[in-house]
Specification:
CATH superfamily of the largest domain: P-loop containing nucleotide triphosphate hydrolases
Number of strands: 12
Number of helices: 15
Amino acid sequence: MTIEPNQAAAQLAATAPVRPDSPTFTELGARPETVAALTDVGIIRSFAIQEYAIPIALRGTDLIGQAPTGTGKTLGFGVPLLERVRSVDEGADGRPQALVVVPTRELCLQVARDIAAAGKARRIRVLPIYGGVAYEPQTDALAKGVEIVVGTPGRLLDLAKGKQLKLTGVGQLVLDEADRMLDLGFLDDVEKILSMLPTDRQTMLFSATMPEPIVMLARRFLRAPVTIHATHGPEAITSPLTRQLVYRTHPLNKVEMVARILQAQERGLTMIWPGRRHRRRGDVRGLGGHAPLAAHRQVAGPGAAGAGRDLPHLAVPLHRPRHPGRRHRHAADRRPDPGGPVRRGRGAAGRRPAAGCPE
C-alpha cells in the first residue's frame, strides 16, 4: 500500500514556470540523495514557492505558504520533510514521523507519489490514506511501519481513533490546500487531528487563498509562523498557463451553448463542471465526492482518455488525473470563487488548458 519509489518517479514532473536564475535544490540545502532523485526526473531549479519555503522550513520554523495550485507546493514542504525524517537505515522505528493532511483522495495520491519519488534514494516509506477503499491494506502498511503519512481528514481521524495510526512520533505537520478543506467541511476533523498531535512539532500550512477561518486556524495551531507569498494580486490565483473565457447566456441556453463548445474543432478531451450533481443529464458520465473510488477509476482511469470520454464534473473534483490529452474544462454554472475550477483543477486538463464558463 505504500508508494513504490520506481512507481512514484514516473509521476513527478516539473510543471510550474522556473526562472533561469532560480536556485538549485543543492543551493537551498537539500540532501544530495534528494537532489539526485529530483535530477533524475528533470527537476533541477526551484519554483518560486520552493525557493521561499524550503530555507525557512529547514530551520524548523512554522510557516504559512500562499500560492496557487500547480506552482510546486508539494516539494516546497516535501523536501523539508525528507530532510528531517529518518529512514529505516537511519534508525526509524516505524512510527509516522511526518503527517500531510490534504482535502481529496486524488491529491493524497499525487502528494504521496511526489514525496516518495523525491525520497526514493533513501527508500522513505510514504503511505497514502484516504476513504472509499478498504481499511485493511492501510492498517497493514501502518503495522509494517512508515515514515510519512499523507491522508484525507476523515480516514486519518478514523484510524487515529482506532489506534491503528499512532501520531505520537509526528514531528512535522503539513496542511495542504487548507482552503479546500474549509470548502469541503473538513475543518472540524482537521482540528481534532491537530489536537492529537504532539505540541512540540513543526507545522506548515499551504493554501491558495486565506479566508478568515483558515487565518484563525493558523493563529490557534501555528507558533510565530513566517508567511510567504509566491505570487501577489488576483491575477496570481490562476495558473499562467491557463486561458479563461466567459460566455454570457440565459440559463435556458446553457446546455445548447455547452453543446456548441463541444462541437468545436480540435477541442481535445473535456471536463464539464455542472456545479450540482442533479444537473447531470443525458448519456454523459459523471463523478463527484459522493461517488466511490471505483467509480472514479472507471470513468477517469487510463481507458477514459483512450476512449475520448468527456467528464461532467462537480464541485468536489478529481485532482490532477494524469491525462495529458485533456485540455479543456467548462464550468456550466458561474461560481462564487472565480478561480475555483481553474486553480484546483488546472492539472486535470493537461499542461496548457483553456477554461470556459457559461454565465
